[in-house]
Structure formats: structure tokens, C-alpha cells
Please model this.
Amino acid sequence: MPDSEMQQLWSTSHLSGGNASYVEELYELYLHDPNSIADEWRSYFQKLPQVNGHAASDVSHSTIREHFLSLAKGQRRPQAAVGGTVSSAHEKKQVDVLRLIQAYRMRGHQASSLDPLGLWQREEIVDLTLADYGLTEADLDTAFRTGEMFIGKEEATLREILEALKSTYSSTYGAEYMHIVDSNQRRWFQQRLESVRGKPQHSVESKRHLLERLTAAEGLEKYLGTKYPGTKRFGVEGGESLIPMLDEIIQRSGSYGTQEVVLGMAHRGRLNVLVNTLGKNPRDLFDEFEGKKQINLGSGDVKYHQGFSSNVMTSGGEVHLALAFNPSHLEIVSPVVEGSVRARQDRRKDSSGDKVLPINIHGDAAFAGQGVVMETFQMSQTRAYKTGGTIHIIVNNQVGFTTSRQDDARSTEYATDVAKMIQAPIFHVNGDDPEAVLFVTQLAVDYRMQFKRDVVIDLVCYRRRGHNEADEPSGTQPLMYEKIAKHPTTRDIYAERLVQEGVLTSDQVQERIEEYRTALDNGDHVVKSLVKEPDRSSFVDWAPYLGHTWTARHDTRIELKTLQELANRLNTLPDGLVLQRQVGKIVEDRRKMAAGALAMNWGFAETMAYATLLHEGHPIRITGQDVGRGTFSHRHAVLHNQKTGDAYVPLANLAENQPRIDIYDSLLSEEAVLAFEYGYATTTPNALVIWEAQFGDFANGAQVVIDQFITSGEHKWGRLCGLTMLLPHGYEGQGPEHSSARLERFLQMSAEHNIQVCVPTTPAQVYHMLRRQVIRPLRKPLIAMTPKSLLRHKLATSSLEDLSDGSFQTVIPEIDTIDPKKVDRVVLCSGKVYYDLLEKRRNEGNESTAIIRIEQLYPFPEDDLAEVLAPYTEVKKVIWCQEEPMNQGAWYPSQHHMRRVIAQHSVKNLYLDYAGREASAAPAGGYASAHAEQQEKLLQDAFTI
Model:
């Protein structure tokens, strides 16, 4: 650190003045032996930030600064000659000792005692033996230089070095960090691990707190097991160290100034976390065990899927905790958490991720087995999805349901190996050593806070019961459960240890057990740091969006003058912005559209929807694989300078203090990205949050998110969400993978006004649809089947007045001047096929057929359709025409709605016929000639059957 920066740091520190010499002495002691100073000071020095790769704890007027800088740079002070010239044989051994040190850093974890049950059978690591380096026991008392080893001595005997290495790298935890490319990060780990030899000294108070948390974890499980025997709870028994681990993460991150922590986890240990970490009232949990229904919640969900939020107090202030709701699909909640965290960070203008921390808790089998884990890791450092690093905790039961053989469960040594793809450090720790758990937890928090990257803690434990409490595990894991039956609990082991150390007496241990059980009996909160009257100033106000019933229409008009002013701002580009030729033509056309000299196309109207929403104060976030340009080159919301490559976003330059607009081309992922956007939308009710599929078919890759969250989240958990999905859909002869967004699936999942499914066919319709989604206070997911060829279709245009004065039409009536009295056939349709039908009718001069577009398929607009059909009093045939095969599209899910409307028509005994492709296993044909033939037939059928 430069002297000026150092002096400024020191002069503004609360440690300056008369305490300077005392602090310098403390720091000198810390550098040589961190265990020699009190916990509070050690924690303070450990958390000092790094500047330019070096610790900012360089205090002035002392040799401390010089010494610390030399350590941080991996250098050593010049060595004094000892005993004259050293023999070449000794120098060779010196090199081998340094190689041994490096081997322990790389592979010491493979010799660690990680399994509480002692069942792991691990091969001897030859790299960690003296013999592999030509060393013998005769060398143990020979002194060698320690190189970069941080053990407070520049020279030590081989015995001391070996003992330090085993204690640091092969004890009850194992550290993997040597795969990290950044040398500053590796050096940071070496200093933190080696300086305390893996065993920092903990205060009496810390040890008592650890035992109290373990007592709470075990106490709840035993209480539930006694009161509700055989009931599923997916208990944390065997992994009780999870509770003190979470407590330490929350408290330590709070000391850094973190204000919110968002947690995601599946079943194992969830009820324990709810009660013992988040402070859920035990009485409420007992009510759920007894099956008492929650008021004003649809289907509800099982208790181990429920979310919760609370506030706890830390040394750094109040911290808001939020546990995400989750389905049974295990890892899918992880990207949802990341999205929620990013939304909170954006709201707080927390670009560095200091104020909001994500924690994702995983099972070992799911972490190793599910691809969304890789997708979520891949997002972690990207512009659109980074959250300043996530703390991942693996509750490693060593068995996934009934699969425990490693050669069945995975192809990697550890369940955590996938994390190495982003160079995340990994700590494996024996769950039966709570002090080791505490140590690695502190390291993980400090690493995340200093380097803003993901970190993984592999809590190696076991599952005392089966997959659930009604399961008998010995049928599939007989040896493991024979061992578990005889194995003392983590709390028992640690309590005995503290009694032997004289930290507590046996009576005091028993008192803590009884105190906890009494609290449960009384229905008292058992989290002592719980804030009963939380600070609500940073909470999201959902009140404006609650209690609204479904309404199809909302006033989405805007003054024509305002519309044109915004359009002109969008199309006024900075000097020096050189556009590609076709893009320049698009911008020039938009200038003409704004002036009313050219009919508006889809891209212009969509962009104006965003501009007007920003003007009215609504933030916007749009992600997807090609959203900046648009897959079909229609949006061009991001313009690229052909000379410099710089990107310019006109929507971000409408006004000086406008709301934020984020437009990001995403990584090639659907599942994790859509889950992220769902999490973002559930945390930001006033924003328009959009995910666009590259092709609508690609939503298949995110089906879990659609099934488990988007279509059912409100009904199961009461979670409101205004997420918009834009899914390009339409049959243009592009084959089975680029035609259908699987409209039928969304309609099959539609019930109880859970989602909206719209198929807009004009620029004005997409404009009003997007504006309605935000301006209307109802928060329901919007599934929009958007077009491809219609983006530039000569008939798919709108006027400025359609935008300024119109509204979203759920049903669009016949647009040509046809006498209703002459109409004997009505064709109902949605989407692109309308324009094919319209052109065919016009070409044939047919004036006896009316074509009606249904633009919103769910909630189905029965009243609007009835109103549009009413004038056709001479109708004899009503046809539903679609491009999709009969077993797909809207035919089967929606025909009952249409039949109900037709049954109420003044003309009786009308029947709804079908015109479309035959039923098919694939969404579309792969041959252009076959596509054209099928398309012509369905159009002909619409007018003749």
C-alpha cells in the first residue's frame, strides 16, 4: 500500500492515537502466531481488506508493514548463513522438502479424516510420504528453510514442518484451493491456514455457543421425533453442525455490513433451519405437523417446502433473512435464490455484493448429479447474473436416497468437484468436529467478502434416519446403519470434549438441554438474536399488488406528443456512433414511424412500450440468448459501434434520472436463467422482467421452472410474480425444433387465473400487452407466443394512434368491411395463421367468411368472444383453425371454452369444427415441401369443411 493511502487509513482508524504501539505489538504477534491473541483481534486482522493483492493492514512506523508485505508477495527476508556452506546433498533435500510442502497443499485433503463414521477407504497418497522425496526418519530433526510456509518460522526441523503440514492440511478438514489460478488468492489461503496450523484457538464463550447451537439442532429433532413419530421431517440428524455453521455465516457477514441474507435449500434440515436459524415460532411448526390449514392459500404445500423471513441482530447491525420456497426438484431453487439476491442488490445499488449475501445449501447427490448446478456456477461471474459470490454448503450425507456407492453416485472423487470449473475454493470438513466447522466457515465468509467469488463448504456428515423418517435405510445400507446405530451424536461428542476441557460441567450441559426443551414446550422463539420489531425501511412494499381480482383491460394509453418525444429521443444517436448498414436502415425507418410517415412494425412498437414504461418510472430487465438484437433481428435495443465495438443502449439514455434498464445477452442456458429471472421478478414487483427464448421450443430446457414455480408458485406458496416470457412461435417450414413453443403445455397448466397466455398479432397488441403487464397492479406471469415472420409482415402493422389511444384486445373482430348478415362461416384462430387466412380470403374474394382472432387464450375471454360473435346471426359453421397438429396447440385445452360461447349464441345447434394439421408425435415437419402442402390443406379446410 502506498504511504499516503496507509497514512490515511491509519489516521482515520479508531485504532489510532495512543493505542498505536499496543495495536502494532498485537499485530506483530498475530503475524507470527494468530493463536496467541484474543478471538476479537484475530477476527479483526483477518477481515482487513486487500489492496492491489496485499493486505491493507500495513500499519505505519513499524517493521510490521515490511514483514507483512514480504509475506503477501511470497517473499522472505534474506537468510543469514547458518553453519557455513551447506552441502549439495542438503540443498537437494531442501528442494524436496519444499516439494513436500507443495504436495500437502495440493493433496493433503485426500489424507484428511473427513468421514465421521470412519467408513471411507482411501488409498495412501504416495505424494505425501517422505520416501517419495528421498527423505527418511533420519531427516526429521534436520533443520530446513520453510520457504513460503506461514508457520511463524523461517527455518524448522522436518519434524516440525511435517507436523504443521498434517495439522494444517490433513486433519478433520481438507482444503482445496491450489486449482485457483490467482496467486493472491492462493497465498491468502496459505497464510490463513498455515499460520494457525488448521487449529485456531477459540474462546470459552465461542465453545459454549457452539454447544448451545448443537443442542438446539439435536433438541428439535428429538422433540419432533417424540411428538410426531414416523412423520416425515427430513431431519438434520447426523448433520447438526449445519446449524452453528449458518449462525456463524450470518453473524460474521453481518459484521462486514451485510444487511440481507437469502438462503436456498431442499428438504434435509429445513425445519431445523426454520426454527433454529430463522426464528420461526415452534408452535407454528407444530400446527403444520398437525395439518392445520393456512388461511388464504390455495393448495398449500408440505412444511419442508415452505419459505420464511425474519430479522436477526449481529455485531454489524440488523440482518434480514429470507429462506426461499422450493419444490422437490432439489437444486432448481439455487438460481432462484441468485435472482432474488440480484434484485435486492440492484434495489440497494449494491454493485459489489457487500450488502446482500446468497447462501445455497445442497445435498451431495443432487449437487453432483443435476446440471442446473453447473449452469448456476457458470452464471456466477457474468454481468447479468453475478451476485458477488455465493456460499455453497453441501450437507454431505454420503448417500442419495438409496444410492451410496461412489461408482454409482458420480464419476468424480468428491461431490463438489463441479465447483472447480469456476476455480471455487472447497473446504471438506468432518461434521463431528464443530470447531473445525467453525474455522472453515469463517474462512469461507472472509474469502467471499474479500474476493467476491463463490466458495464451497462440504460438510461431511451422515443421515441418522432413512431418506425420511418413515423409511428403513438398513435394507440398502446395512453396514453404514450398523455403524450409525452405535455412533454418538455430534452434540454428545462435543459436550464430552468440553467437559474434559473444563469449559462446562456435566450438569451445565444437561441444563442447556432442558432449557431448550422447555422453550419448545412453551412455544417460545428459540433464536436469541431474533429481532421482534424489525426495521421495515428496506422491505419491498407488496401492498399495492395484493387482493386484486382478474381484469382483462387496463388503461395503457399515453399522449401522442409524449410518445413521439420519446421516439425521437430513442432515435437521436450520439456523434461518432457508426452503425452497420442494415441497422442504420432500421433506425432511419423508426424515425419515419415516429413522424407518422411509415406504418409501425413490431420492433418499433415493442421498443416504445419499454420507453413509455421507463418514462413512467418502471425499471426493466430483459435477458435471453439474443435479446439485445433479437433472434430475428427486429429489436436492436443495443447498438454496436462498427468502428470501436462499443455498445450503446438508447433506452438507457432517455432521461438523466430514469429508472434502470438492463438488457443482457445471456449464456446458453434456459433452466438456470429462467429460474434466476423468476427469482428476480418475485422480488421486484414494480419492474417489467422479461426472459425471451431464442426459439420458443427452447423453453423445454426450463420446463422444471415453468412447472414448479411459474405456473404453480402463487397457488402453492402465495408468491406473486409478474415475469414475462416471450416465446417465438410459428410455423414457417423450419422443422420440428424451431416452430412450436408448446402452447398446449401452458394451456394445460392454466387454472384458477394462475398465468396469462397471449398470442399478439399486431405491433399495437404487443405494445399494450407489455404495458398492461406492469401498469395493471395484478402480478401474474405472462406467457406470450411472439412471432417470427410477422415481425416484418406487410399486414402486421399499426399506427401511432393505435399506441396512444388503444388498449390490449383479448379478441380482435373481423377487420374487413363484410356484412355480418352475409356471413355463414366464422373462423376462429390465433397467431400467424390469421394472416395466411386473411390473404387467402382476400385473394378468393370470399365475403361470406369472417375471421376472428383470439389474442388471449388464458384466462379465456368468453364474454369478449360472445360479444364479437353476436352480430353473425346467419352463421352455420364455426371453425377453429390452427397451424399446430391436432394433439398440440390450443385445440384440446381451449375447445371447451369456445364451445361454451357458441352454445350461448342466438343461432342454435352450432358445432365447432377443426381445421389444422393431423395429430403428430413431432411439432412440425422437417421438409419445406411437406410443410407447404400441410399449410395449404389446413387453410383450405378452414374455408370448406
Summary: The chain has five domains: 3-72, 88-194, 204-522, 560-805, 817-944. The chain has a mean pLDDT of 90.
